[in-house]
Each structure stands twice: as C-alpha cells, then as structure tokens.
Design a protein that fits this description.
The protein is α+β, with helices and mostly antiparallel strands. Helix content is about 20%, strand content about 40%. It has 2 domains: about 90 residues, Beta Barrel (Ribosomal Protein L25, Chain P), CATH 2.40.240.10; about 80 residues, RNA Polymerase Alpha Subunit, Chain A, domain 2 (Beta Complex). The radius of gyration is 27 Å and the shape is elongated. This is Large ribosomal subunit protein bL25.
C-alpha cells in the first residue's frame, strides 16, 4: 500500500491541535540511517487507510518530499470517542531490517473439517493475531490457519502453523500457544414433569 505524507514544520501540543483542526494528522517517522522526522497526513485519507487490515500488518510505501520510503506502522493514537486519529508513528525499514510485528490470522476450511461437518461442533478462535519476528521483506499481510483437519476434541497450536522460512512466532514464554479449539455442541435437555409434580398440581386444583 502507498500513502502520501508531508513534512511538518511546527511541533508541540498547540501546533498539533491547530493541525488537527485543519483536517490533518500529526505523525513521526523514524528508524534507518536518517533522523526522526515530523510529518503530517490528510486525516480523511489516513482514516480510510487504517480501516484496511494490510495497513497495519504489511510494509507500506510512504511518499514524502518526492521520495518513496518503505515503512511499517508502529502506533496509532485514537480520540477517546470521536472517529479521529490523533497521531501516528511509522518506522523506516529496508531489506536488512529485522522486526517484530503482529499480523492477523485468517481462518479457512472450518466448515469442511470433520469436527464441524460430521460432529456438528464449533471451532473457537482463541487468538486472532500473532506476533512474529522476521525480516521486513518477509513480513506477510496475514497468516492462513487451515482448520480443515480438526476433529472432535482437538486443538490447533502455534507449532501446527505452516510459516515461510525465516519467520518465527514470538510466544512470550508460552512454548506452544493454542490458536483454535473444537467446542462440542451443548444439547438442551428437556425434563418431563415428574409424577409427584403432576399429583401436586391435581391436588391444588382440587382445593379450588
């Protein structure tokens, strides 16, 4: 994805507030061999971009001052209740940049799994994204999770995922975190009225 940014001349809380009032969003880009640089972006264009999953998880092309730089989105600050982006951070990357980034999981083939198709179970998505470590050039837009072989009573774990060479899952101390689990359907049991309850009802009618 490609987006356009502009060099920001003024900084500070007051300057950022005035910038937002003109329909712009302040930001910063850092990393690489260049110094951090204050930038501004058109808010409406930015708002449309951040609705797209790939804007958060892939390498982006930022056009700034007539030059295109590869970056990744590092942070977004939102207004507490307005549909407004207050600030954005980007990191410059190149083919040698090794980074950690959260990427979304795309679950496929659940309806074709024996757990769902034969046993009428449900598949619970325990997590919807994973943090990975890789070179910027290897960063995937998403990780596909194939649920097609899940059976009743089974779970899918991080080690079951098929990842490209060089991509490592960051587990934060959990050796093999669960990605999805099969949940058996809950059957409602309708209990027939007991003989004692039926006699009790008859007794109450007789008293009337």
């Amino acid at each position: 994805m490609k987006f356009t940014a502009f060099e920001r001349q003024t900084q500070g809380t007051g300057a950022s507030r005035r910038l937002r009032n003109t329909g712009k969003t302040p930001g910063i880009v850092y990393g690489g061999n260049a110094a951090p640089q204050a930038i501004e972006l058109d808010h409406n264009a930015l708002w449309q971009a951040i609705q797209k999953e790939a804007f958060h998880s892939s390498v982006l092309e930022m056009e700034l001052g007539g030059q295109v730089t590869k970056v990744v989105l590092r942070d977004v600050q939102y207004h507490p209740y307005k549909p407004q982006v207050l600030h954005v951070d980007f990191q410059r990357v190149d083919e040698n940049t090794r980074l950690r980034k959260k990427v979304p999981l795309h679950f496929v083939n659940a309806d074709n799994s024996p757990a769902v198709k034969a046993d009428k179970c449900l598949i619970n998505h325990v997590v919807t994204e994973l943090e990975i470590e890789c070179l910027a050039t290897q960063l995937p837009d998403f990780i596909e999770v194939d649920l097609g072989n899940l059976h009743k009573g089974q779970s899918l774990h991080a080690n079951d995922l098929k990842l490209a060479a060089g991509i490592k899952i960051v587990t934060h101390g959990k050796p093999n975190p669960t990605i999805a689990t099969v949940v058996e359907p809950v059957e409602e049991v309708v209990t027939a009225p007991t003989a004692a309850a039926a006699d009790d009802k008859k007794g109450k009618k007789g008293k009337k």
